[in-house]
Specification:
Number of helices: 8
Strand order of the largest sheet: 3-2-1-4-5-7-6
Strand content: 15-25%
Helix content: 25-40%
Distance between the termini: 30 Å
CATH superfamily of the domain at 2-147: Vaccinia Virus protein VP39
Radius of gyration: 16 Å
CATH topology of the domain at 2-147: Rossmann fold
Length: 209
């Protein structure tokens, strides 16, 4: 776990408009009919996205999971102040390694998985996807967005944060091998025309074995 703690030691703190205009929010609005009552946000960091999801009336509970306790504490205290009580009451945070998520089986109706898989070492990928399958209800959906191939990658970092890279074929295969059905998987260029800004957006559904 230390290899993740060492490289995921930052706290995200941008203004409200940055989060609302980000592709992540565009994707949530696009697929909000798939969220259901209980939603997990994996790799939530300080959790601003959790509170934005809490503004959706049909969602009753959002839990943000992250390995960075400092970021979780910041969200729980500072970001929570930016939202009304009826939104904040829906949001909880849990310290958790995504290889062993602190949650019961079949608990969530949906999982938000934004910009996490590129942080997962290849040898841990199957275990991380299996944990998503375990905590998701049958018929539930994963709403996912990650960099397309090496977009946003900074190889000059002393400890690179991005250690795994995906295109449509690799992402679909990774989830289908772990018993998910691909609903959509596509290169998403809505935030820029250059390859450096492309994302890979996908919807996966948990199906019965």
């Amino acid at each position: 776990m230390n290899e993740y703690l060492n490289k995921e030691n930052y706290v995200m703190n941008f203004d409200d408009s940055w989060y609302r205009e980000h592709l992540n929010s565009i994707i949530i609005n696009q697929y909000n009919n798939l969220l259901g009552k209980k939603c997990a946000v994996l790799g939530s960091n300080s959790g601003y996205q959790c509170f934005l999801i809490g503004e959706i009336k049909n969602v009753d509970e959002i839990i943000g999971f992250d390995i960075n306790q400092e970021a979780l504490n910041y969200g729980n205290v500072n970001i929570r102040k930016n939202f009304p009580e009826n939104v904040g009451n829906k949001v909880k945070f849990k310290f958790s390694n995504l290889k062993n998520i602190n949650c019961d089986d079949n608990y969530f109706d949906s999982i938000i998985d934004f910009h996490t898989l590129e942080h997962i070492y290849p040898e841990d990928l199957n275990q991380v996807i299996c944990e998503k399958y375990r905590i998701l209800k049958h018929g539930g959906h994963i709403i996912l967005s990650i960099p397309y191939e090496k977009a946003f990658h900074s190889p000059t970092e002393i400890v690179p944060q991005h250690v795994n890279f995906f295109n449509e074929t690799k992402l679909k295969k990774s989830f289908e091998l772990n018993k998910f059905e691909t609903i959509e998987c596509y290169k998403d260029d809505r935030i820029g025309n250059s390859p450096e800004s492309w994302c890979l957006t996908a919807i996966f559904k948990k199906v019965s074995t």
